[in-house]
Amino acid sequence: KILIIVNDLDNLAKLRKIYKELFEEKAEVQFRSLKDFEFKLTSDHYEINDLVEHMNINSYDLVYIKANRKPKLLSIIAQYLIFYKVDVINKPNLNNYGRDNLTILSHLSQFNVPIAKTYLVNRNILSKYIQSHNDLKFPIILKEESSRKKIVKVVISKRSELKKIDEYPNLTFFAQPLINHQGLYRAYLYGGKLRFVTYSEDHKTENVLNTKDDKFKLIKEIASLTSRAVSLELGVVELIQNKDNKKLIVLSIEKDISLIDSKNMPQKEKQFINYVDKYLNR
User: Fold this and answer.
1) Phi–psi pair at 31, nearest 5 degrees
2) DSSP letter string, the chain
3) Is residue 70 a contact partner of residue 34, using CB atoms and an 8 Å limit?
4) 241 pLDDT exceeds 90?
């Protein structure tokens, strides 16, 4: 059972004829473009599905990537298949497997890091998909699938507001339930290890969390897992706590620590000096 991933504009009729003759009925060949896939990510489950056959793409025996558009998504697909030991022909440049949001979420999901349920499909079917999906109850938040630091976020409170998607015709969004939470935790990692945690209720002031606080140990465990999942040596893990079930969820990751921001400068400077000293063997 072979899957061939093609660009949207490829001549499918001609390709089907060529490969049918080539394999002489010895293999079942399916052709899909990126618009035919569904990406589903949770804290304990990660799957990429073929929406036409309604099956996980790791069920194919061989996947041939002929497509060359949207290399980041193709890289995510390739890494997913490699993880499940599915043979892949013509792997895209895996250097594209980097800092974009979906890539990071796919890593976190594979390492069972607590994240919000995340769904990505082709934008042409996104509205219909949201309306028909049981796990996507309003309100939801749509986030731009991008590696930009400041991304577009759109809150959808009811079905009639789905038309907001049309205001961004050139953007790809993934959808998540809007989580009811209070405050923001920021875990600062140096050398991949947690050094201190701050808490903010108003997103303006950050107070350093006491290491004896009950949440500190749990945040340390999540931050350590996150560090391994995305090779985060120097950066910040942002977390929120779900008001309903009290679970901590990784909201975002910053792959750097700013020394320009005036918040908590003594802690930042001290830990950065210690971190660099280890490199200099001092």
Assistant:
1) -115, 130
2) -EEEE--TTS-HHHHHHHHHHHHTTSS-EEEE-GGGEEEEE-SS-EEEEETTTTEEGGGSSEEEE---SSHHHHHHHHHHHHHTT-EEES---GGGSSSSHHHHHHHHHHTT-----EEE--GGGHHHHHHH-TT-PSSEEEEE-SS-SS--EEEE-SGGGGGGGGG-TT--EEEEE---B--EEEEEEETTEEEEEEEESSSS--EEPPTTSHHHHHHHHHHHHHHHHHT-SEEEEEEEEBTTT--EEEEEEESS--SSS-TTHHHHHHHHHHHHHHHTT-
3) yes
4) yes
Beta bridge partners of 254: 236
Q: Is the pLDDT of residue 103 over 60?
A: yes
Identity of residue 66: K
Considering the chain, what is the average pLDDT of its residues?
90
Do 153 and 141 touch, CB atoms closer than 8 A? yes
Considering only 6-15, 187-196, 228-237, 257-266, which range has the smallest mean pLDDT? 257-266
Q: What is the pLDDT of residues 34-59, one digit of tens each?
A: 999 999 999 989 999 999 999 999 99
- Predicted model pTM: 0.87
Give the pair of three-digit tokens for residue 188: 């600062």
d(Cα 72, Cα 144) in Å, to the nearest integer? 14
CB 173 within 8 A of CB 143: yes
CA distance 122 to 124: 5
